[in-house]
Automatic annotation (TrEMBL):
Signal peptide: none annotated. The lineage of its organism: Eukaryota, Metazoa, Chordata, Craniata, Vertebrata. Pfam families: Cyclin_C (PF02984), Cyclin_N (PF00134). GO terms for molecular function: cyclin-dependent protein serine/threonine kinase regulator activity. This is G2/mitotic-specific cyclin-B2. InterPro entries: Cyclin (IPR039361), Cyclin-like_dom (IPR013763), Cyclin-like_sf (IPR036915), Cyclin_A/B-like (IPR046965), Cyclin_C-dom (IPR004367), Cyclin_N (IPR006671).
Length: 394
């Protein structure tokens, strides 16, 4: 059903709009988050579905795993014979051993105050030695670990296995999720994680067109629980879907997604790598925001879904550095990202081609978002010319 966008408040003291005040604080460092109310949530988009031509979504009976009816037909009988008792310490040691080794293999622990060897010219964490919130002793270790975890979450083009979906429908869903992230004032990490969770679920489970928005909104709910200090409640997500789905359907979909992903939702996202790599070269907020715009636009492109998060973040930052005339891929970026310029060239060309394509008037959420002055109006800047890009990459 067609719907207009929510009108923003007229203004606040100091001459800035409420949206400018909110986005401005997030565009710098992550500030305190305002606790949201529920039903209807403050600042939420008006009731509507992501796919405005689906007007009978609420009439469709959706069969999802984990329903109470199925559980009633096949009750699980618990064994009456208890297992052998085990000492609490044994279970604790066993779980600690499994958690330390994980699927990536055992990792040698770091002693207090010890960092893995980093050459002095590439050491960007020692200046924050007195700030425990930045984890200077473990920052390099953390991002190396996230980069290793990427190998477990490499996706493929799953659209051939989704007969009821198209690339355009996925782009519409991502565009709608961007609006949800803006109006609920969620972290950008929540948006990226929600898209990742959606893609991983769709790569495994065939989904009907009428269920796609339910998958996306449930993925945003899961990501909010993982990332946010005060996540929206179930009723908030039912409201923004125009009550097209019931509470039971959303909870059943949440269980289905978590079971399909084996409850492993700590998926590396490009946004975290992007902030880290921008700090390596001391990029200004305008340059980082331009790279963030490129990175967020890549969420709608199906061709960029299989790319690793760290590689995609590196490509976005390289394009932003070239567009701002700040040089190319420097040795410090090669050290921390682990990529050479030749590794980035194919992804940069894909990204540039996606940004150079004529914009779809129906998919304007990201462009409108980054056309605001608190985002330095980076969406209005001219795209890097193809000749300049080819010369920089060769």
């Amino acid at each position: 059903m067609p719907a207009t966008r929510v009108k923003k408040p007229a203004g606040t003291a100091g001459g800035k709009t409420a949206k400018a005040a909110k986005v401005g604080s997030e565009n710098q460092e992550e500030g305190p988050q305002v606790k949201r109310s529920s039903s209807p949530p403050h600042g939420a988009p008006k009731k509507r579905t992501a796919f405005i031509d689906i007007t009978n979504a609420h009439k469709v009976q959706i069969s999802l795993p984990g329903r109470k009816k199925d559980a009633a037909k096949n009750p699980v009988k618990k064994s009456a014979v208890p297992g052998p008792p085990r000492a609490r310490g044994h279970l604790k040691n066993r779980s600690a051993s499994a958690a330390s080794e994980g699927r990536e293999g055992p990792r040698p622990p770091l002693l207090a105050g010890q960092r893995r060897h980093t050459p002095a010219q590439f050491d960007m964490d020692s200046e924050n030695a007195d700030d425990c919130f930045l984890c200077p002793d473990y920052a390099k270790e953390i991002f190396d670990y996230l980069k290793q975890r990427e190998e477990r979450f490499v996706l493929r083009d799953y659209m051939p296995t989704q007969p009821g979906l198209t690339v355009e429908m996925r782009a519409v869903l991502v565009d709608w999720l961007v609006e949800v992230q803006e109006n609920f004032e969620l972290f950008h990490e929540t948006l990226y994680l929600a898209v990742k969770v959606t893609d991983h679920y769709l790569s495994t489970v065939p989904v009907h067109r009428e269920t796609l928005q339910l998958v996306g909104s449930t993925a945003m709910l899961i990501a909010s629980k993982f990332e946010e200090r005060s996540p929206p409640c179930v009723e908030d997500f039912l409201y923004i879907c125009d009550d097209a789905y019931g509470r039971e359907e959303l909870i059943s979909m949440e269980a289905s997604i978590l079971q399909t992903l084996a409850f492993d939702i700590n998926i590396p996202i490009p946004y975290r790598f992007l902030r880290r790599y921008a700090k390596c070269v001391g990029a200004g907020m305008d340059t980082l925001t331009l790279a963030r715009y490129y990175c967020e636009m890549s969420l709608m492109d199906m061709e960029l879904v299989p790319e690793r998060a760290s590689l995609l973040a590196s490509a976005c930052l390289l394009m932003a550095l070239l567009a701002k005339g700040l040089g190319g891929w420097s040795p410090v970026l090669q050290f921390h990202a682990g990529y050479q310029k030749a590794d980035l060239a194919p992804v940069v060309r894909k990204l540039h081609g996606a940004l150079a394509a004529p914009p779809d008037d129906k998919l304007r959420a990201i462009r409108n978002k980054y056309s605001h002055r608190v985002f330095f109006e980076v969406a209005l800047l001219p795209l890097l010319e193809q000749e300049v890009l080819d010369e920089a990459l060769t």
